Amino acid sequence: TKHFPVRGRLRDLFSRTPAVVHAVDDVSFALRRGRVTALVGESGSGKSTVARLLAQLHPRTAGDIRLHGTSTRVRGGRRFRAYVRRVQLILQDPFASLNPVHTVRHHLTRPLRIHGNAGRGGEELERALTDLLTRVNLTPPERYLDAFPHELSGGQRQRVAIARALGADPEVLLADEPVSMLDVSIRLGVLNLLQDLKQRLDLAILYITHDIASARYFADETIVMYAGRMVEGGDSETVTQAPAHPYTRLLTGSAPDPERIVGAVGGADASRADRGGGEPPSLIKPPAGCRFHPRCPQAMRRCATDLPPRLTIDESGHWAACWLFDAATVAADPPGSAAA
Ligand code: SF4
Ligand code: MG
Hints:
Layout: E1 2-5, H1 9-13, E2 20-24, E3 35-40, H2 47-54, E4 66-67, E5 70-71, H3 77-86, E6 87-90, H4 94-97, H5 104-114, H6 122-135, H7 142-145, H8 154-166, E7 172-176, H9 184-201, E8 204-209, H10 212-218, E9 221-226, E10 229-235, H11 236-241, H12 246-253, H13 258-264, H14 270-273, E11 311-312, E12 319-320, H15 327-332
Parallel strand pairs: 3-8, 3-9, 6-7, 7-8
Antiparallel strand pairs: 1-2, 4-5, 9-10, 10-12, 11-12
Helix pairs in contact: 5-6, 5-8
C-alpha cells in the first residue's frame, strides 16, 4: 500500500482529515523466475507506483516486499542491499534514463563495478562489457561501447538500459512501459529480447503496460489494476480472451482486432480504451465499495458500499474482485440494478 500526502491548495479542499492520494491499496502478487507477469492499467491506476515500490525508490505505507521469503522492511543493511541488486528497474524513456554526456561503456561499467561483476578490471572488465552488449544483441560490441546515447536509436538505447540492468546480475526485472516510447516497428524486437533473456537467465519479469493486447502476446500471467487496486488476475490468455471483471471487459471490448495488434504490439491502449465509459475516480477520495462502481454497467446496490474480495472464477487461478462472482449477491440484487 502506498499513500502520498497531498500538499498545498488541494489539501485545503479536504482539510478536515489530512488528505492522501490512495495511489496503491492492498496490491499483492508473486513474481516467479522464468515468468513474465503483466500489470495492466490506464495511467493513474498505480502501476508505476508499484514498480517504484518494488524497486525500493519509495518507502511503502503498509505491507512488505519479500525476496525468497526475506522481508525488506528494514531499509539499509545487507539484506536490503542484496534485494536492490537483485531487482532492477527499466524505465519507459531510455533517453531520459541514460546520461547524454556518458558513453555506453561508462553506463555499463558502473553497475558492473558497484555490484562486483567487473572482475579485476582490464581484460576481465572488457569481456564483461562485451558480454552485456552481446546479450542484448548490440553486435559487434566494439561499435557500441564508445557511442553516446544520442548516436543510438531509441531501440538501441533501450537495449543499453537493459544491458545496464543485467550488469547487476538480477533475478527480477521491473520493466515500466519498456516499449511505449519506441516506434511500433521496433517494439516487438525489444519484447522478444526480454522474452529471450527471461528464458536464458531465468528472470522474473514484471511487465507494466497500458496495452492489454501486448500482455496477451508477451506475459504468462496478467493482473489488471483500476484506481490503485488489483481487480482481476490469471493466465494472460484467459484474462485477455475471457475477461471476467467489467473493467477488463471494457478494456478488451474496445480494443481493435487482437490478432492485428499482436502483430504490431501497441494498439489497445487502456487510456484510450475507456474514454467511452467515463473517467477514473479521484484517488484522494476514492469511491467506497468497488472503486469501479460509478462507471460499472452491472453495478448492484452492494457495490457502492462493500469492497469486493478476490473471488475465484476457476481452478486455473483466474480471479476477479467483483460481486458478480458471488452467487448470493447476484441472487439478492440483479446486476445492473444500481448502474448509473
Ligand atoms: Fe464493481 Fe459491482 Fe461492477 Fe463488479 S459489478 S465491477 S463489484 S461495481
Ligand atoms: Mg506510468
